[in-house]
Every structure is written in C-alpha cells, then in structure tokens.
Amino acid sequence: MSRNVSTTFIAAANAQETDEVIICLLTVTHDDLEAPIYLSSNATTRLSEDPLVYGTESRGEQYFYLPFEFTLPDDQSDNPPRVQLKMDNIERSLVAILRSFATPASVLMEIVLASDLDMVEITMPALQMSDVSIDDHTVSATLVADALINEPHPAGQFTPGSFPGLF
Predict the structure, then answer these.
(1) pLDDT tens digit string along 53-100?
(2) Domain count, the chain
(3) Residue spans of alpha helices (H) in 15-136
(4) Is the Cα torsion angle 100, 105, 108, 111 positive or negative in sign?
C-alpha cells in the first residue's frame, strides 16, 4: 500500500540525522467522554502559562504534550494494521480515564512534521484501543485498525433449519 507523503517527510524518515521532527497527534474519542482528548508526542510550543502546559497546535486544535513512543504498522495484507503505543505512567488522571472505559476507545492517529504542523502526512482513522496494560512505570496500548477481526466468520451457517430452500 503506497502513501502520498511529502518529500520532506520521506527525507526526514530515512535520514540518519535530521533537524525535522516527526510528531504523532492522537485524538481519543469515547461515548463516556464529554469531549475528545487531544495528545501530542512532542512539546512544540507552550500552550498556557498557568498552569504550565506544553503541546502542539495543529489546524486550530491544541494537542497536549504527553511523551509517548509509537510504532507505525507495517503494510502487510494478511494482518490488520496495529500501532503500538508506550508512555510513561506519569499522569494518574489518564490511568483513571482508561480504567473507566467499558468498551474500546476510538483513536484517530495523524503524523505531522514540526516544520508544517497543519499539513497531515499520514492519517490512520478508525483505530480501536485494545490490549491496554498499566504498571507502575508504563502504560502500553495496541491500536487495531480492523474491528472486524473480532466478528465471527462466517457470520451465519447455511443449515436446513435456517435455509430450507437450499436443501
């Protein structure tokens, strides 16, 4: 699967050293949340003085800085895309929010460059948060792109009781 990304992004991703910063922006939504949670992997700018908050402003939205590592999925056709997230367990309110969810949260993942925060290079919509593990130091989560992986296949069976006209 090919992606249309800028030559600046390709050069930054493939360079051994670069001044360009690749930033991951996450938009977490759930029915139990009043408003989406916006997170950034980079402290691009100071968003407020009191309290002191850093983050990234992109397309008019403020994404709060929460240091996390992410692994982009590979483009294999036999597996649904999976994104691995790992963050330090420093914000206890995030743990309380994650534990309050009874159903998976939806996550929109966008990759931007620090030189052009309004230009989205890669978008991965409709990711479902799964396999969340929380310990004393880290919070790890897997974002799965294909929610149909949990559906039974085949969904129904062609039996004489269900489809008498076939037999």
Answers:
(1) 999 999 999 999 988 898 877 766 666 778 888 988 877 777 788 888
(2) 1
(3) 92-100
(4) positive
The pTM is what?
0.79
Token digits of residue 114 = 């620090």
- Give 109-155 as a DSSP string: EEEEETTEEEEEEEEEEEEEEEEEEE-SSEEEEEEES-GGGGS-SSS
Is residue 51 in a domain? yes
Residue 158 lies in a domain: no
- Residue 50 is classified by DSSP as T
> Which SS3 state, helix, strand or coil, does residue 37 take?
strand
Q: Is the dihedral of CA 16, 82, 134, 68 positive or negative?
A: positive
Indicate the pairing of strand 82-88 with strand 61-65.
Answer: unpaired
